[in-house]
Amino acid sequence: MNANFSIITDNLDYLLWGRLADGHPGGVALTLMMALGAAALALPGGILLAGLAWRFPGLVRRLLYGWAEVIRGIPLIFVIFWLWYLLPWLTGSDLPGAVTVTLALAWFTSAAVMHTVYAGVQALHDGQREAALAQGFSGGQTLRRVLLPQALRNVLPSLVGIGISLLKDTSLAFIVNVPELTTVAGQVNSRVQIYPAAIFIFTGVVYYLLCSSLSLLARRFQPRPT
Length: 226
Hints:
Helix 3 (27-55) runs parallel beside helix 6 (97-123) and helix 5 packs across helix 6 (97-123). The protein has a domain at 30-182: MetI-like (MetI-like fold), CATH 1.10.3720. It contains 11 helices and 2 strands. It has 226 residues and is mainly α.
């Protein structure tokens, strides 16, 4: 058992930071960077799309829902592969692997955010909208000032669940050899070829702690019902 733990302690810096000192983050650090970057794109993007779906109930809403259904029906691993090959063709240059995976995660997650937020807005009593319009608010002001704040508070647990899934989904970056936590754990295991159970149990514990911390943090700041 001591030898098992020595595998972790001997490679702990690499598992946590990768080669951060050389300007190449990896491990837990890169996992968090990709998750935060994807969330920073997916959350406002999904809210914007939900707002557009609410404001324009005709063709726009059908197109957005059709796009979201297609994205949600495709495994994330395919989205990563598509962007991995498509973005260099579109941009004419190779993007860093972590950037490509972050964009894929954001694109994939924004569909779930859109569905969740739109459902939250639709669940509000119609009297909320009618009262706001009676006060002279425009449709956009009604959405921004009245409906969205209430809907976001109501769907916060669902958004936290989406965030936790996003954090775990960063592990799929290993398929394109981006050195996040799962990838570097595999590299350590391939290098030492001893006690793989210790390495991957450690990896699972780290993911559990990260996801549990996110859940506890969201619960701490969730408004309590009055």
